[in-house]
Amino acid sequence: MIRTEHVRYEYERLDENGDPAGVMTALDDVSFSVSEGEYIAILGRNGSGKSTLAKHINALLCPTGGTVWVLGMDTAKEENLWPVREAAGMVFQNPDNQIIATVVEEDVGFGPENIGVPTDEIWKRVAESLEAVGMTAFADVSPMRLSGGQKQRVAIAGILAMRPDIMLFDEATAMLDPRGRKEVFETVRELNREGMTVVWITHVMEEAAQCETVHIMHDGGLVLSGTPQEVFSDRERLQNWRLDVPPMAALAQRLRAAGVGLPEGILSIDDMTREVEALAAHL
Questions:
Q1: Closest of 31, 175, 35 to residue 91, by C-alpha
Q2: Per-residue pLDDT tens digits for 87-124
């Protein structure tokens, strides 16, 4: 569904006066693939290149080297730009920057209207999309009255209404409080269970740990890929890339070092609870 081969992206850096100050490399030889229905995380520190890679997947940027294919379409070909952007919808960090209408249902219908969807079909999609993100009760409410998490769910509904094949989330929970972060993440997990292909861009370990596959980026390159258990098994290696393991994984490591018989692969509170309950049952 998504495939990149040796992707490189360079841009001209400007100094404080706006004059050319050299060429910067944001992506360097990035190759990976995403299958239909997969839920992946792209993890890395700020400046690692993960957001730049996401913008290549929905053709907001074009590689200066290598190739990006989305649904078999080469994103560098001009005739593929709009089909790729329709196929790969993106949700950004700040929900306030993505909502433009004064009523929730009108905002959700804005995208379909702009791609020429007939009116009757627009309202059908609006209703279905709001239901999918649990915001039906807020259809006629002003977005200004919503919490950050609710606004982000409206932004997700607006993308869903355009019926993309892939959804990209670029630090979509970065500006939300813990409750809003949980609302959005649970919504996305449900969409994936229903078959949506999800690319989740983050620097939050706990979020990445809940995805099927984790790709780690550092200095513009893809340095490690695998399951969450594989990726988070080597804390020392992650620290070389200025990353850490999820808190529950760190706690499990400390407990194992103290002699507690916990297995490898604990990444979440649910994992820890299950293993502690199993230990307690044998006491």
A1: 175
A2: 999 998 888 888 999 999 999 999 999 888 999 999 99
Name the residue range of residue 132's domain. 2-228
The structure tokens listed for 221 are: 């390159």
Q: Decide if 261 is inside a domain.
A: no
Tell me: the pLDDT tens digits for 52-63?
A: 999 999 999 999
Question: Which amino acid is it at 194?
Answer: E
Neighbours of 11 (CB within 10 A): 12
CATH number at residue 23: 3.40.50.300
Sequence-ordered list of residues with C-beta below 8 angstroms from that of 99, at least 6 positions apart, any chain? 107, 143, 151, 154, 155, 158
- The model's pTM is 0.86
Assigned domain for 262 exists: no
Residues 204/42, Cβ–Cβ less than 8 Å? no
In a domain, residue 153? The reply is yes
